[in-house]
Every structure is written in C-alpha cells, then in structure tokens.
Amino acid sequence: MSDLKPLFSPKSIAIIGASKNPKKIGYELVYNIITGGYEGRVYLVNPEGAEIMGLKSFTSVRLIPEDVDLAVVAVPAVYVPDILEECGEKGIKAAIVISSGFREVGNFELEERVVSVVKKYGIRMLGPNVFGLYYAPSRMNATFGLSRVYPGRIAFVTQSGALGIAMMGWANLYKIGVSAVVSMGNKADLDEADMLDYFASDEETKAVLIYIEGAKDGRRLMSSLRNITLKKPVVIIKSGRTEKGASAAASHTGSLAGTDRIYDVAFRQSGALRAMDLTQAFDWVKLMTMQPPPTNENCIIITNGGGVGVMTTDACEEAGVNIMPLPEDLQSEFKKLMPVFGNFRNPVDLTGQAYEESYYKSVELALRDSRIGSVIVLYCQTAITDPVAIAKAIADACEAQRCSKTVVTSFVGGAQCEEAMRKLDELSIPSYPIPERAVSSLAAYYRWQRYKLARAKV
C-alpha cells in the first residue's frame, strides 16, 4: 500500500499539459483538481508558460522549484516517453498518463518505451489511456470527469473511461458515495490487482466495484482477490461474455478477454461476486457499504401486502436466502401487531391497514430477536398511509435497536415512495424500487459472508 501513497495521497501534483482552453482535457484536469478541494501544492506545466486560472505555469517539469509527488500527464502520445523521463529525473514517484494513442490503437512500441522509462525510474504509473483518478480522503479529483463527486465508501475501478465518467454521474444522482474512482486504461504498469491490494488496507473503503474486460495477470488477480475478500466484498462486472463481446473488448483497450467460463470459476474461487449488469452491481455494493453483514442465515420479511410478500419469498428461495419458519413465541408477538386477518408467520403480513406504529413495532421486534439475522421490509403504497412516515418509522426502529443486523427495504409506488426511499438511503438503510433487487443484494451479501466464514474455518 505504501508505494501507492504518492498516487492516492500526493502532497504535490504537477499537471503536465495544462491548458487555458476550456475545451481541452488539460483545462478540465486543472479545474477539477482546484475546485475539488485538493489542499496540496499544484504546479502547472505548459509549453508557453501561460497563466491558467490564476496560476503561473512552468515550461518544463524540471523548472518546478519544489519536490513533486504525482505527475498528471495529458500531452500527445508521442511526447509521453520524454515527459516521463523528465519526471524520473525530477524524482517524481507516481504518474497518471491520460494520453491515448498506445496499445489500444496498435502502437505497441510506443507503450513499451513508456514502460521502460517508468521501470528505469521506479515510477508507478496509472494508464496510459485513462480519464484519471478520484480519491475522496485526499480530496483529489485528478480526472476530466465530473468536478463534484459524492463521497462515500465504494471504490470503483474501471477499465472503461467513458463508463467510469458516466458512473460518477450516476452515483451522484442517486447519492451513492464513492471513496475512489480509478480509471485503468491499458494497464501498462498498475493493474486491478494493485488497486485491490491498496483498497484491502484502505479504511475509507468498505467495498470495491470493478468493471473489467480482461486480466493482465490472472494468477496475481486471483491472489489479490483472495486477500481482500477476507476483509471486504468485491463485486465484479466482467464484460466480453460472448464471442463478439470479447472481440469488442480486444478492440477497445487491446485487452485479451479470455474464456468467460474460466473467469467465472476464478471469481467464485477467490470470493468475488460477479454481477451481470451495472444496476445489479451498484445495488449490491450499496447494501454492503450501508449495512453490517447478516448475523445468521435466518431472514424475515415484513410487509403490508400479501402479494408482494409472496413474490419476495419466491425470490429469496431462488436466490438462497433462508426465510425462517417463525417460532410460536415470535408468532404470538407479531399477532399482537396486526388485524385478525393478518399473517403472523413468515412473511409477516401487517395488511394494508398497517400504519407507522405497526411498522415501528414489527421492525423493532425483528431486530431484537437474536434468532433473526436479516430483515426485508416491504411497503406497497396505499391511500391511507404516508410512505415518508412509514420510512421514518423503519429508521426510528433501527436507531432504537442500534441495529447490528442487515436491513433492506423496498417501497412499491409513486413519487412519495421515491421520496421515502431517498430518505432511507440517506440514513444508510438501503431501499429499492422492486423487492427482487433488495433480495438480489441481500443474497449477494450472504454469499460473501458464507465464503468468508468458510475460508476462516480452513
């Protein structure tokens, strides 16, 4: 982890290729680093020595009078080896090479020259062909993506630059906070295994989400996955599942996608959770960064609608989430909280007449009982209840019990349900618009927990 500190938490940054033209990447990099709140020293390198955003620039990195930890390089590809040579002579220890035009377009020789330079000087390099790196703890937005990012506990590592920038926007929209966003590009030096090794020890990161097209060193990737998955969950989206998809991956970043079935087995053996799409991946890490893992295998469903309760039970059965038969003493307690036509077994159906008090007492009862390891709370919008008030009752019950169990919720309805779910998300009680997404997330959490416990016994 320590050798990547200049990359993630530099005390000073040189932006090489800084530009005063707002349409240039070199301008966006300067703007994002300055407005993002980075508190270290910023040096601009521009061949004309122009003043940019009130900062003077140097015509060469060699002319910067102080030490520099990190170089962010955004110059035409042909100049990159010489620029890195200057960085090496300057004693710079890390570089983010934004520039494109290397292996991804068949220019292998130029990329090999870049690699030989960084190896010569011991520079750890991200890229080339990346959109940059964001790291919340150091308030460093060294990207040409969004200038504002919602901070949180998810580290997002992506081989696709455009996808990474889009995901920054999506995370902002839904207030899914990230601790880091790392663009991998061609992985000429640093790769996903290096990032996993760093995030394994990063206290600000609770879960890692990776988009990958192909691995540079499969054995090393598995080793790093086995190490980190004992500490925190890793969710992977592996594209190139089909023959045509694999061909597209090869033309995108020059990546060898490999046989998909081999990746599937490797991920399972190393404890990584494979998601099939972006929505699923973010659903899973959202739960894993908001809630503690389940305390045992037993799950209870609390609902105000019988139909949605049955659908959720089916989804749990199919996904491997155990809906526990409730002991008689617990049935008796739930029976007191509902009309005579309610269902006090599992799922617990409070009926459409369930107000805030019924939800509060039911959730509190479930959280208080040590035989229950996780709780799914469902709400279907009715004319006589207020979704926001129901959400508050659920949150109050969790707070009253100082919740150490996994709680997921799903509100099915209109705009008021959207508002209620936003409030729950803000309180770290993950909410989903359909129950199947809540179940999918909980099932993934259980799979990681089972893997971790099985490894601990070996």
Would you give an account of this structure?
By secondary structure, the chain is an alpha/beta fold. 42% of the residues lie in helices and 18% in strands. It folds into three domains: 1-129, 3-Layer(aba) Sandwich (Rossmann fold); 149-290, Succinyl-CoA synthetase domains (Rossmann fold, 3-Layer(aba) Sandwich); 292-457, Rossmann fold (3-Layer(aba) Sandwich), CATH 3.40.50.261. The chain is built from 16 helices and 19 strands. The protein has a seven-stranded mixed sheet with strand order 8-7-10-9-11-12-13, sandwiched between helices. Strands 3-2-1-4-5-6 form a six-stranded parallel sheet, sandwiched between helices. Helix 5 (161-173) links the parallel strand 9 and strand 10 (178-183). It is elongated.
Mean pLDDT: 93
> What gap, in angstroms, lies between the N and C termini?
27 Å
Number of helices: 16
* Strand composition percent: 15-25%
- CATH topology (fold) name of the largest domain: Rossmann fold
Which superfamily, in CATH terms, is the homologous superfamily of the largest domain? Succinyl-CoA synthetase domains
Percent range of helical residues: 40-55%
Structural class, from helix and strand content? alpha/beta
Main sheet: strands, sense, barrel:
7 strands, mixed
Spans of 5+ residues with little confidence (pLDDT < 50)?
249-257
The tally of beta strands, per DSSP, is: 19
CATH class call of the largest domain: Alpha Beta
Large-scale geometry? elongated
Integer-rounded radius of gyration:
25 Å
Number of domains: 3
Strand order of the largest sheet: 8-7-10-9-11-12-13
CATH architecture of the largest domain: 3-Layer(aba) Sandwich
